[in-house]
Amino acid sequence: KAGVTQTPRYLIKTRGQQVTLSCSPISGHRSVSWYQQTPGQGLQFLFEYFSETQRNKGNFPGRFSGRQFSNSRSEMNVSTLELGDSALYLCASSADRLAFTDTQYFGPGTRLTVL
Amino acid sequence: AQRVTQPEKLLSVFKGAPVELKCNYSYSGSPELFWYVQYSRQRLQLLLRHISRESIKGFTADLNKGETSFHLKKPFAQEEDSAMYYCALSGGATNKLIFGTGTLLAVQP
Fold first, then answer.
1. Chain B residues closer than 8 Å to A108 by CB
2. Percentage helix, strand, coil, to 5, in chain A?
3. Is some CB atom of chain B closer than 8 A to the CB atom of A100?
4. How far is residue A18's CA from residue A13's CA, in Å, rounded to a whole number?
5. Which member of A43, A56, A99 has the closest CB to residue B95?
6. pLDDT tens per residue, range B27-81
7. Do B97 and A45 touch (CB under 8 A)?
8. Tens digit of each residue's pLDDT (9 = 90 or more) over B37-47
């Protein structure tokens, strides 16, 4: 099976702009989660989508949003970019058997730089 | 508060030496614990999880609820074990993972 793919791999934006990142999960996986990775804060959970619905949410401001499509592909959007949003954004998918926490399969990440 | 603590940013050992990567957690309830690993230029991937109680690449980890720890151990380190190791927890039946800050393991020849 092809792994999780994320596009684009690199992005450079300026403060105040908005950005959309895309994630295609492994075929058959219905859950997609997003994480932000920075040197200072490490890996932090943003949100999870399942069946086009946000199921879990982390502690991020409303400028961070996401959605999931019927084919399980997901996008996340960050509006009014701030310098502190510079990070590696990771997407992870899982089969979501939900009897327990399923194995998360991570993508390569999108490196966002805000100038 | 839910928290995962990995006290060591860097652990350097020689090949053949034992390895122990420390992980302590704070969680009110029964968490599931994981170790994820990221090798150079590769994706973050699951190494092992406490409920499976299996040994992967010679690594084991035991959940100690009394000490709220989930340390990762390997009796004899190999150079190919050099990587970034992250301890993580979830509340169970959820895909939300809380990660520690990671420990870089460097195995010297």
1. 43
2. 5, 50, 45
3. yes
4. 8
5. A56
6. 988 888 999 999 999 999 999 988 777 778 999 998 998 999 999 999 999 999 9
7. yes
8. 999 999 999 99
